[in-house]
Amino acid sequence: LTFGDEGDEEDWETRPPVVTVMGHVDHGKTKLLDAVRNTNVVAREAGGITQHIGAYQIATELDGQERAITFIDTPGHESFTAMRARGAKVTDIVVLVVAADDGVMPQTVEALNHAQAAEVPIVVAVNKVDKEGANPAKIRQQLTEYGLVAEEYGGDTMFVDVSAVTRQGLDDLLAAILLTADAALDLRANTEMDAQGVVIDAKLDRGRGPVATVLVQRGTLRVGDSLVAGDAFGRVRSLLDEHGAKLKEATPARPVQVVGLTSVPRAGDTFLVVEEDRVARQIADRRQARIRNAQNASMRKRISLEDLDAALK
Ligand code: GDP
Asked: Tr-type G domain spans which residues (predicted)?
């Protein structure tokens, strides 16, 4: 099985959408991500404070059904484009944040260009509607020029007026994300196979050693699994969610902190579970050798999907 192979369709199950928040600087991306994170009342009561681990998942309700949404917790198109440049398609939906008192700005256009080039559906969050001088209608009108026509004007893009400060419109935003996902995307993934996915964030923790936040894209990741992530490898010692709670396993679209790697991988590295430690070590060794060679040749080489496939053969 190579990276990206989805295996048997019988084993596919619906998974939550993965969302990246993009938009012009100061239009409220960070604030909005914080506000959405705090909609998770159940989790908050049970687990306490949410940590910033690079991604989080919230539970919400749509038409009486409990649904989850995963948010990549690093705003901006840098992470989006860096991951895509490396072949990792992480984002299902882009939430484009536009401040209602400021309007469409250069980075708004840049962000929507990236999303459109990647054929990722966009939900527009018209933010800061609590402010004096907010003009949400103007944002809708401005964005028609870029092919984003609001549903109420006969288009197929959902616009939601929100305030990350007063929290107005947040539930509508979550609903719009799910409705857009249901209308435009077939979000299913294999839950039976060994896990594969992408490293969202990684660091060296004083007490715990290398800690990587990974997003499982297919399969189920379990404590005890041997995995390779970029040129790092190791056995999963523990899995922690965004509340620091220990998990036994992580299924598709679940962001989870992995403790147990022997070195720190890089954001955008792909990861996969292999049958035994020995194989994980071999693949990692081979990649490290390749990186050393590339370094000698001047620049540090990034592991591409092709390298990963080649290393597996
Ligand atoms: P980012 O650069 O896009 O991540 O923007 P931030 O989230 O850092 O927000 C920029 C500034 O706008 C901060 O001072 C926020 O407090 C403020 N801000 C963000 N959202 C809102 C909002 O909905 N209403 C108001 N009044 N201020 C907001």
From this structure: 14-185
